[in-house]
Structures are given as C-alpha cells and as structure tokens.
Design goal:
The chain is of the alpha/beta class. The chain has helices at 15-21, 58-71, 90-93, 98-109, 140-157, 171-181, 202-208, 228-240, 254-263, 274-285, 291-305, 315-323; strands spanning 31-38, 44-46, 54-57, 75-81, 114-119, 133-134, 137-138, 161-164, 190-195, 244-248, 268-272, 309-312. It is built from 12 helices and 12 strands. The two termini are 39 Å apart. Bound molecules: ligand PBG.
C-alpha cells in the first residue's frame, strides 16, 4: 500500500478513531511508588532534586501510602536511611531497623498495599558502597551472605517482596536460600538484574544519603555500553530463582527492556530512576516542556518498550492524571 491509496492520517482524524487503534496504554495497575524512610516521628524533609518527594518518618509514610492506596497504586518500594551507619551495614538487617519497623507498621495500618523492600547495603555502610569492603573494592561473597540475612529480616517483618539491588554475583541465589531456610519460601524476589552504573542516580543518592565516599560503583554495576551482558545477567538471575527481573534505569535503556521482553518470559520491571524524574521536573519548572504530558509520554514509552511494571517517582501524579 502506498500513497495516495494508503493514508495513515485517516485513522488519526478524531479521538475515537485514535482510541480504537491505540496499541499500548498506561494503567495504575502497573505502577510502583518508591519511598525514603527515616527514623523519628513527624519528619517530612523535602528532597531538593526531587520536587514532591521527602524523607519520611514512619508515621508520615503511612499517610502517604494511604493516599496512594486511595489512588489505586498496588505497591510501594521502600528505601531506609538508618540513624547510624557502620562498616558492616548492621542497620540493614537489625530486627528493629528502620525498614523492618516501616514494613511492620505498613502491613498493620495499610495492609492493602504490597510492600516491596530494596535490599542493598549502600544506605547502611559508612563508606556508601553496596557491600562489605576488602581493601578498596566490595567483597562479593561475604556481601551476599549479609544481603541474604537482610532480605530474610525484611520478609520476617512482613515484606511482600524483596528487591536486591546491590549487583553482587550470586545475590539472588543467596537470598532465595536464606528466605527458604528461614521459612519465607513464598516471598518473591524482584531482581535488579541489569542495573547500570548510571549518572541518573544522582538525586537518589541525595535522597537516600548513599553516595559512595570514595570511587564509584563501576566494579559491580554494569557498563552502559553493554547489552549482551545484560542478557547474561538476566539469565543468571532467572536461574538463581528471580520471580521478576528488572532493567534500571529505564529511559536510556529502552532497547534493553525490549530485548529482555523478547528473550525472557518472566515478568519484567523497569525502574524510571531519580534522574529521569528530576530532569522532567526541572524542565517543567523552567516552562520548557509540559511536565504532565512528558510524564505520561515517558511512562507509556517504557510500557511500549516491554516493561510489565514501572517503578517511578511519578506514580502518584500519574495515577491522579489517569483517574481524571
Ligand atoms: C541502591 C539503589 C540505588 C538506586 C536504587 N537502589 C542507587 C545506586 O545504585 O547508587 C537508584 C534509584 C534511583 O536513582 O531512583 N544501590
């Protein structure tokens, strides 16, 4: 079919035609909202680089999660900022740690919402790396033991799902074994499988107070140049027992999302990270683009690329926009 017989514009003439031929859609069902939890009460500290987001104490977290529940958001993802950090990340697996208490409170007060916990050590170590150090680098095998212990402590506190993000080799297997041995064989693992060493995490590190105190994360997070390697990482996580695999960040890695969708049949998550959020917010604040339209377009693009679910700081705003 060619012009002038075929005219694609025929099916774009009005909104009803466009609705009928629309291939992809956004739904609140697919959104996961991240939160940063701190100790204390009545804390709501704005995160400058992430307008509308705060470090929240557990009492205020409950209020925010209630709002998202009322908007129909199915799940939240929690990051904890402990009172004190140390070399061994003891705050990560403490029975009364900030995340363990946040999970228990949420499951008590807003039980309708699924609580997913990020399982990493960078918020809990004094040096800000994602595991225990041996010399100047993160020691893999002792770290995955601690990640297993941390995940189990989250599950025992009531977490509905755990999400390991440290990019250590064997972390999914170590966590699966720890959960199974601890009687939490029903707790699913959402694995940050292809997580890149990205500049787009900048605002998050302010929010989670987790910037590395020296060096970078390039010895454990992936090189942005690689996509075959992402498939290998995903294969490993599938074999180690991941229930959901993830690509992170999302926007600069839509090709990886598409490949993962084609090569694996596990549910696929994409993490629309802090820097992706911040750049839209900054441009919108300057009046340089329509923030709401840009938000909806980028979330739709992540779905179109193949993500089944999206972790996004836009979750609340997108749910409100979709409900209008
Ligand atoms: C923990 C972790 C990070 C993010 C999620 N989990 C930061 C990092 O790896 O430095 C980034 C999320 C975001 O930027 O929104 N390792």
């Amino acid at each position: 079919m060619h012009f002038p017989e075929y005219r694609p514009r025929r099916l774009r003439q009005n909104e009803n035609l466009r609705r009928l031929v629309r291939e992809e859609s956004l739904s609140v069902d697919k959104l996961i909202a991240p939160f940063f939890v701190v100790t204390g009460t009545k804390v709501k500290k704005p995160i400058d680089s992430m307008p509308g987001h705060f470090q929240l104490s557990i009492d205020y977290l409950v209020k925010e999660v209630e709002i998202l529940r009322d908007l129909g958001i199915p799940a939240v993802l929690l990051f904890g900022i402990p009172e004190t950090k140390d070399e061994m990340a003891t705050g990560a697996f403490a029975k009364d740690g900030v995340i363990q208490r946040a999970v228990a409170t949420l499951k008590d007060k807003v039980s309708e919402v699924l609580v997913i916990t990020d399982v990493c050590l960078c918020e809990y170590t004094s040096h800000g790396h994602c595991g225990m150090l041996d010399g100047g680098d993160v020691e893999n095998d002792s770290t995955i033991e601690v990640l297993g212990e941390t995940a189990l402590s989250h599950a025992k506190a009531g977490a509905d799902m755990v999400a390991p993000s440290a990019m250590m080799d064997g972390q999914v297997l170590a966590i699966r074994e720890a959960l199974d041995e601890g009687g939490c064989e029903s707790t699913p693992i959402m694995a940050y499988s292809a997580k890149y060493a990205s500049a787009f995490y900048g605002p998050f590190r302010e929010a989670a107070e987790s910037a590395p105190q020296f060096g970078d994360r390039k010895s454990y997070q992936m090189d942005p140049a690689n996509s075959d390697e992402a498939m290998r990482e995903m294969t490993l996580d599938v074999e180690e027992g991941a229930d959901i695999i993830m690509v992170k960040p999302a926007l600069p890695y839509l090709d990886i999302i598409r490949r993962a969708k084609e090569e694996f049949d596990l549910p696929l998550a994409a993490y629309n990270v802090s820097g992706e959020f911040a750049m839209i917010k900054a441009a919108a604040a300057m009046g340089w683009l329509d923030g709401e339209q840009a938000m909806l377009e980028l979330l739709l693009a992540i779905r179109r690329a193949g993500a089944d679910m999206i972790i996004t700081y836009f979750a609340g705003e997108a749910a409100a926009a979709l409900a209008r």
